[in-house]
Amino acid sequence: MGGYFYSKRRYVHPDGMWADVTIARFPPESLKFEDIVLQNPLVRMRDEAHFLIYKALERGEDDPVAVTWACPEVPLAVSDAFPGLDSTTDDGEFLLDVGSFVTYTMRELISRGWLFRSDGRWQIAVSRRNSRWLALAGDVLQWLERGNRIWLETLTREEPGWIPIERFQPGNCAPIGRCGFLRDVVRQRAPKVAFNTSYFLLEQDDYVSHHSALGDPYGLLVRDGVIERPPLYRRGTIWMGGDGRWHVNRVGMEDVWLRLPGGLRLSPPGGDGPCFALNPTDGAEFALYTRHYGIESAGRPLGSTPESPGSLEITVVDRRIVGWKYDGGLLIPQNGFVLAIAPGAVPDETVESLRAGGKVSYGFARADLAGMLRAVQAGPELIRGGEVTLGERSLDDEGFWWSREVGGEYVVGVVPTDYSDEKARLRTGRLGIGVRADGGLVVVAAAGVNEGMEIEGVDSIGLDLWVLASLLAEGGAIEAVNLDGGGSTQLFFECGLATHPGDRRGRPGLSYERMIPSAGIA
Question: Which residues are CB-neighbours of 465 under 8 A, at least 6 positions away?
Answer without folding.
Answer: 380, 382, 390, 424, 425, 430, 482
